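User: Hey, quick favor. My workstation is busy. Could you predict this chain's structure for me?
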Amino acid sequence: MKLLMIGGVIVGAALLAKRFARNSGEWSWEQVIDQMPDTAPPKWMFSNITAIRENTDRIRNLLESEGAPTHSTREGNRGGIIDDAATGTSPT
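Assistant: No problem, here it is.
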């Protein structure tokens, strides 16, 4: 009797694992976020990050269409050239 119960548990666990493995390919963060209520902080964060990415892409496209440099240097507030913050240099 004990062997039959253990066998049943193993078969049940195998069936559940198969079902979860089949549905795991359809899972995504966007689906999880969409199912959250509008007042959920993770949904706010996801929405804000998405908006920032869209704005950044829009700004880059505008700068490229105007011929402005989009890398290494840019004009500073004082009229000097400021290297990227990643280089750790200060305005000249």
